[in-house]
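Moderator note: this is an archived Q&A kept for reference. The question asked for a predicted structure of one protein chain; the sequence and the answer are reproduced below.
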Amino acid sequence: MNFMDHIKILLLHKGYSSFVKADEELLKKHFHVTTYYLNPSKKLLKFFYYHVRFFIFMLFHLRKYNLIYTWFGDYHAYHAGALSNLFNIKNIIVVGGNDAVSIPAIQYGVFYKNNIRSNLIIKAYQNADAVLCVDESLVNGTNNYIDGDNQVGLEKFIPGISKKCHVVPTGYNADFWNCDNEKKENQVLTVGIVDSENRAILKGLDLIAQLAYRLPGIHFIFIGVVNDSILLNTKRKNLTIIDKVDQKTLKQYYCQSKVYVQFSVTEGLPNTLCEAMLCKCIAAGSNVNGIPNVIRNKEFILEKKDADKAEKIILKALDTYQKIGEENREFIKEFYSEEIREKELVRIIKDIVK
């Protein structure tokens, strides 16, 4: 029997997002995987209940595993790290974005406040055997898109942590994210989960609303708004705002739209941007984290949050030949495939669990 067939992994997460599910499926191809969801409730009693339940689960079951694989650095990663050290179990943390930044203007990032949470998260990273970042900027980066003392990258908060960091981009299924219909409509699409005013600014909904006002002849679509109360200042006749949709429906929107825009204030490596590029969208976005690494056409990068410059980028993108969209697809297929991530994860896990 292969050595890797014996490796048992506990996959720990605080939300069953598409990228967590993708890693679960990938890891199950090579290892025995058990998935544990730790509810991230902000209500104090529920918070303690879920964490105590998790702690008890770990005490009784942790010895079964060779590795804890944790998505995002947060409280759950601290618990996992402390207990894995106690029982001599290997421990990996996957960093996605929020868990490696401080953006004061929107009070965003686990390191925005110097408190118990941020200090526990620092301990979690220090306890980890490896830290996987979806983009190099989450190890050591900059963010000048908006004004303020923005700090980006774990090295800013934990000097020396880069020695255990590995950059492993998320991977995408080019067979699924593909369009049968080659006809694109002259519309601009953005996708991002928005449930508060801060999240609206984070994902660029405020800027999209300004652009819709400035460009009344262009149809804008924003998918992912789950809280209608934040829409009071964003309603425009040419701006369609939609709740979350399933992946099949999302693909239809990608395939319909000529331009995909990601004017986020901060990101890791946006899944939606890469998915849209696989669906041959002309991609534009803000100069933050992984966005400019994925969008190779620098004329479509918004250096600073500025409505005038954003408007020019939108118009230029809409006027661009569709060949750029076809090139976008080939780029994501080559450099951000599921196969590349799979190969790297298996290699790193094999090296750690010897």
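Archived answer notes: The mean pLDDT is 91.
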